[in-house]
Amino acid sequence: MSAQVRLSVNGSPVEVPAGASVAAAIAHVSMRFRRSVNDMPRAPLCGMGVCFECRVQVDGVAHVRACMTTVSEGMQVITDA
Amino acid sequence: MPDRYDVLVVGAGPAGLAAAHTAAAHGARVGLLDAQPRPGGQVWRHDVRRQAPRAARDAIEKLHGVDVLANHSVVSVESSALRVEAPQGSRSIAYGSLILATGARELLLPFPGWTLPGVTGAGGLQALTKQGWPVTGKRVVVAGSGPLLLAAADTLRKHGANVLGIFEQAPATTVRAFARQLRHWPARAVQAAGLRLRLAGVPYRFGSFVRRAHGEDAVQRVDIESPGGMQTLECDLLAVGYGLVPNTELAQMLGCAMDYLGPHPHVSVDRLLRTSVEGVYAAGEAGGIGGLAVARLEGAMAGHVATGHSVAAHALLPQRDRERRFGALLSRHFALDARLRSLADNDTLICRCEDVTLSELDGFTDARAAKLATRCGMGACQGRICGTALAELGRFPRNGARPPIFPARLATLAGLTTLPSDDAYRGS
To answer: Which residue among B37, B134, B354 places its CB closest to the CB of A24?
Structure first.
């Protein structure tokens, strides 16, 4: 088993295996990743960086694709939903 | 990191890994770009809980003398160079030869409820799961088309999911005909038998497809149409994918000629994988969906040709041709049912980035006009999802690629040496 990484999603602490994606960490807390232009909740669709439905704020940087970003210790993730 | 490589490879999946390894073995200075944090591509995506297949580990460990440029997204095309964006900033990387191993993405077709959280691609959920997405104990419906559904279900089960069923749109007769053909491909037959054995107990239904997903804030149940009638299944996740579509955006921006065998283009290449642009090669799915074996062989071929070793590439042709025939067999037997093109109703969102419904697109016959009037295709995915779906639905083809290929930071755009003039991309 790989080591665990601790990070925060909307202020909630989450622990996932090292190498996991930010998308996976968020899914432990919420299935709402972003709001669409008409205010509907959205979550990852393609899982491979194409659809941009998983974009969130990571350590202050907006529009980061959660599915393509690997977690790191102490990371602060904020969803837009 | 150098600013120029003899051979620059875009995409670190099986094709790109083979290309980089082969070119480096001939003494070339090789750079291998990928937008993902780790090499492997989609089929060999890193699994946080399980060891990668031996072939994947070997391919990645063999990369001696290759600069692996992870987290590098190509933004635009310059003169014999690519503008790339990485977390540490943007830069231009020049090349002598360029090998496009850009792979494929899933074909995702719109249906009522497909925007609900919990609805993903089939390969999409497989990829998410490998990277730690929680599926343990979750009830998952897998649907769509092709053998990828079995592979996805297998991964999901290994990670503890409760796969309620696999719903294949192709009719039972053609899937059985496909299975009979497998006797000509012993390795594939063994692989398929292993999958079926591991998936024993999971219903595998043919001529069946998802009509609608229901839920409030996330998917809760799905309506499935089968030859026997409609059924509704309660579930936590729905993974639905209708096969693969080549990623051709970069090739199009480079000016490479495209081939159309259906609604989606692939890069046109000759027997030695040369595109219509000198010094640019395409290997694997970008040149037409062919699968893992084709990708590995063509990657090696492109690595040979790009370094002037055409004889070695020629030697791989018979094997490559044989594997390409398997790809053709797959696409023939898993051709999409026409009913899948009319799943979306008037209120179904087609463009998920800009929330544009199907009825708002009525009357438009080209992507540009639709975009100007409705914003369809103007969001962050740049029409990769809606444009591909609309082409499949027979509405209109996707517009050609224009820079930036992916959304980029302003600082990156400011660094472009040749600013894209809108006129050049307006098309005729």
So the answer is: B134
